[in-house]
Amino acid sequence: xxxxxxxxxxxxxxxxxxxxxxxxxxxxxxxxxxxxxxxxxxxxxxxxxxxxxxxxxxxxxxxxxxxxxxxxxxxxxxxxxxxxxxxxxxxxxxxxxxxxxxxxxxxxxxxxxxxxxxxxxxxxxxxxxxxxxxxxxxxxxxxxxxxxxxxxxxxxxxxxxxxxxxxxxxxxxxxxxxxxxxxxxxxxxxxxxxxxxxxxxxxxxxxxxxxxxxxxxxxxxxxxxxxxxxxxxxxxxxxx
Length: 240
Known about the structure:
Layout: H1 2-27, H2 34-50, E1 52-57, H3 59-62, E2 69-72, H4 79-83, E3 91-96, H5 105-111, E4 115-117, H6 122-138, E5 142-145, H7 163-171, E6 175-180, E7 195-201, H8 215-239
Parallel strand pairs: 1-7, 2-5, 2-6, 3-4, 3-5
Antiparallel strand pairs: 6-7
Keywords: Acyltransferase, Lipid biosynthesis, Lipid metabolism, Membrane, Phospholipid biosynthesis, Phospholipid metabolism, Transferase, Transmembrane, Transmembrane helix
Transmembrane segments: 7-26
Pathway: Lipid metabolism; Phospholipid metabolism; CDP-diacylglycerol biosynthesis; CDP-diacylglycerol from sn-glycerol 3-phosphate: step 2/3
C-alpha cells in the first residue's frame, strides 16, 4: 500500500517538477546552470517522498574551479533523484536523443542546455561530441557522463565507452569520478524508511599532456578506481 501511495505522489511530483523546470527553461533557454536547478527540483522533494537517506562526500567535485568531465555509474531511472542533489553549477549532461520525446521532461532537458546524441547516427554523434569539447574549452561548462552507456544494476561496472575520455583529453580538462553505492537492490519502497545511499567523488584525474594514445590506460585507471570505491561504499553500508 505504501509503495502504491508513494508512486502516486511521485507521479504528481514528476509532472509538477517538469512544469516548473520547463518554465525555467523558457525564461532562460539553454543557460548551462538550468540543469542544476532542474535537477534539484526533481531530487530534493523526491528524497523526502521516498524517505531515502543520502550521504554525500563530493568535496573533490565541488573544489573544481575549471570545467571538467564528471563520470558516474548509472543504475536506474531513480538516478535523477539520487544524483540530482549533487550536480554542480554550470554542468550539463549527455543523453540519448529519444529523451526529448518524454512529455515535459524531454523538453526541459533540451532547454536546460543538455546535449542530445543520436547514437544510431555515427556522424551526428561525432559532431555532437566535437561541439561538447568546444563547450568544455571555451564556455566554462562541465559535462556529466555515464560512461557505461546504459543502466547497470549488476555488481560490476560495465566496460566504459570512450567518448567522455576522448572529450576530456581533447579539451585538456580533468576527469572527476563520482561513485554511487549499489542502491537498486537495497531500497525498500514499501517500507517507511526506504534505505541509505552513499555518494562519493574521487580526486580529479588530470589529462594535461595526454594524447589519444593514452586513452586505454586512462579508461582502465578510472574504471578500476570507481569499481574499488563502489565496493567500499557498499561495504560501509553493510557495516552501518
